[in-house]
Amino acid sequence: MRDALRLHFNERPDCITAIDKAMPFGESLWRYPDRKPLEQTLADINNVTPEQILCTNGGDEAIMILMRILSEGIPLILPLPAFSQYTWGIESWQLAPTVIQPTDDLSIDLDGVRQALESVQASEQADQPAAVLVLTSPNNPTGEQLSNATLEELLIKANKANVWVFLDEAYIEFSSRGSDSAKWLTQYPNLIVLKTLSKAYGLAGIRLGYILGDKTVISEFEKRCAPFNIATPSLEIAKAALQPEARKEVANYCTSIQNNREKLFNWLLQRMVPVIDGEANFLMLPFSNDQAGKNRATVCARFLARNNILIRQFNDSLNHCIRITIPYDMTALMSCLKQLFEPELICLDMDGVLIDTSDSYDRTIMATIKRVTGADIAFEKIQNKRNSGGFNNDWVLSQALLADMGTEITLEAVTDIFQGLYLGTEQTTGFVANEQALIQKRLVETIKQENKPNWGIVTGRPLTEAKAGQKLVGLKSLALISLDCAAAKPAPDGIQRLQSQFGTKSWMCGDNPDDIQAAIASGSVAIGIRKQDKQALYDVGADIVLDSINELEEWL
After folding, report:
1. Would you kindly state where each structural domain of the chain is located, as residue ranges?
2. pTM
């Protein structure tokens, strides 16, 4: 039997030949899409009728329709933390919700949810819900999964109060505990379940989600939905993805992610890294809710990004938290996390990190300029030049500053003047006498007592001055790489020599752009040490900038 001559939708009666040949479903692209066959497939899978299913343009469209319904005068109950589209929808749709703050450990405040349900006022319109409670389980961003017993308790309470429960199960396939939502659909007409093919099925690009519920509730969503909301290619790809063999592949993939999640969770727990035991395809790491915690989140996100691993760092009320999606192959992630949380080597610059040189090297630069030109130079000019990079060596820096002032002089001549002023003579005291330790004795003792990590110093000082600096701070036993045995930073040679000596990757702590560039070139975690003008170090790629080296003890 011939296809009907469709003259009622203003469609072209065929498809472009090139598309027809390139795609197995090309011949149907000239027609407006029909989501009903897919809804029948989903109904069969979920043991419901097609009237209880609505396919949407990703889960996002279902949430948007929910927000539209709420904007018509229905109260929202939203426990936090919650998926950003729910919180964004409050402002976008100008809702006045009951927002329930999370507990201290970022779990949903169930008592607060119960109280909110008990305080719901009866709806003025009998065909409308008195309110809508939104729950996400496993939750995004924490991964928390509410127990089936808890969910059913809330469903019963909500049902008595004529409250819809919008249960977002976008991540349910990754749960090792499963869900009873399918059987609840026949018991609780107030339940709406959101599912998606974006996560476990790996089909975020086709934008296909769906909701399940009582047919009267689903009809409320459907009449606010665009008539042809899902493109034919998306519908056809979804049909293929829902075939038995494809679903089996998805289940095997989810099992692998569950196993990897458990391994990562236990690994972090053993190293006392804060982590929430979640049931989604990610883990959330809630660091302390202070500046130190935010620093930890920042260094993780930046270092992993530098190694082509992108994670989520939150910048709102959860700005001390990061979220790591669990990969199928854990190799690259675990290598970076081991370097971050279990360092085996920490390299330290000396000047500005271990030793305060503001009254020694910086004053020597000023005195050298004065000796050669008779003019004074402001410290800010010295620092700006140093921040521009390539001037980790103060002799080279002094020569460059003199050149900026119009004075040409050989590096050898500058070095002679500089060293005479810095070290002094038999008749004069050099500026070296002004140096004081920045590192506190407590951290020094920690460094000397700990077997792991190993510690080393990478400095642009000549060997004699470097050893004097070691003695000043009480770290004479540390491995030392000085200017005499490695190229000056930003070359990574000194760090790489220590990495080779100890056979491991490292952290590198430095106070100027050359230190940070050397750290990055050596594959180290790049830790800046500077109280002022931190942005100069972030600009060249520092993973984090601390005020003082002494903050490092808290990290260890």
Report:
1. 34-242, 257-341, 345-353+436-555, 360-434
2. 0.87
